[in-house]
Design a protein that fits this description.
Blueprint: H1 2-16, H2 21-26, E1 37-40, E2 50-55, E3 61-67, E4 73-78, E5 81-82, E6 89-91, E7 94-98, H3 99-105, E8 108-113, E9 118-123, E10 126-131, E11 136-139, E12 142-145, E13 151-153, E14 156-160, H4 161-167, E15 171-175, H5 178-182, E16 191-197, H6 207-231, E17 248-254, E18 257-262, E19 270-273, E20 279-282, E21 289-293, H7 298-301
């Protein structure tokens, strides 16, 4: 409840200070293993944009993007964390991504030669040479033909998604309709997520491990709700129905997250990080998409 109110207040302040957008983007660096995100519908706090926020290292929610209402919402997630300001473009049915952002997050250095219009990527066991407007590249001395040429967009170099991810020894995933993953709250919006995963040097938890952990967290939350109702001289009722905290099922996965749903609360999905064992979930509140750490804040629905 406290973090929900904090997110709302922070969102209002960020929109008031909309001219500080560039600074806000810099203050919300990518955080591995943290899918925390807010997306506010146009009209809720801004008449002109869907407002995207992410949580920075200090725990504050900052605005990192403004999306035109009705436009597809494309998000980039690398190793379990959404990447601020990583605009994805689609040209001729090819997904293009910003080279520098992805390379640096994956541990490589990017250099630009303005005279030759070439880009070199060094690190993560890879040496890449690209030329703007050319479909030819070199990876560790081997010639490679891209399915779309490297290009400049908004002063950033863009390259085909699968090429740069695989050249840096990472795997690509694509959720075309994130709505199908996160439930009917988002039916009026087309949200897609590109995931890039570089294997961690530790074993992954299995989906059944996640299910057990999520059920345990659900039981704790249920007891908290029951206690709250008792303290306020209330009971579960038709308007605030009782539920079985153990009726949780595995739905699917994206990136490094397993997705679960609690019966009766299907619109608030639960994410389990298969590397860290941490639980995140969609939260009820003002944003039409609000993912934060912890189990679903069901108590908020019983206020």
């Amino acid at each position: 409840m406290k973090r929900t109110l904090t997110a709302v207040v922070t969102a209002i302040l960020c929109v008031i200070a909309i001219n500080a957008y560039a600074y806000a983007e810099e203050s919300a660096k990518w955080k591995q293993d943290d899918p925390g995100i807010n997306i506010y519908d146009a009209g809720s706090i801004s008449d002109e944009f869907c407002v995207v926020q992410m949580e920075n290292a200090e725990g504050s929610w900052v605005t990192v993007d403004h999306l035109t209402p009705g436009a597809p919402i494309r998000l980039l997630m690398i190793n379990g964390g959404f990447v601020p300001g990583a605009q994805i473009i689609v040209q001729n049915n090819r997904t293009l991504v910003p080279l520098r952002i992805i390379s640096e997050v994956l541990g490589a250095k990017v250099d630009w030669d303005g005279n030759k219009r070439t880009v070199t990527v060094t690190g993560a066991g890879t040496f890449i040479i690209l030329t703007i407007d050319s479909s030819q590249a070199a990876v560790n001395g081997q010639k490679v033909t891209l399915d779309a040429p490297a290009t400049i967009f908004s002063d950033k170099t863009y390259v085909p998604l699968r090429f740069i991810a695989e050249a840096l020894n990472a795997q690509v995933g694509y959720t075309d309709k994130f709505n199908d993953t996160v439930g009917s709250l988002l039916n009026n919006y087309k949200i897609s997520i590109v995931t890039i995963e570089k294997a961690a040097d530790k074993p992954k938890y299995a989906a059944n491990d996640g299910l057990a952990a999520v059920r345990e967290a659900s039981a704790i939350t249920y007891q908290e709700v029951a206690q709250y109702l008792k303290e306020t001289d209330r009971t579960f009722s038709d308007s605030n129905p009782n539920y079985d905290p153990q009726k949780i099922t595995y739905v699917n996965s994206f990136g490094r997250y397993y997705v679960y749903r609690l019966e009766g609360f299907e619109n608030f999905n639960i994410l389990y990080n298969s590397y860290t064992g941490e639980i995140f979930s969609q939260k009820p509140g003002l944003p039409f998409l609000f993912i934060d750490k912890g189990f679903i804040n069901i108590g908020w629905l019983y206020q």
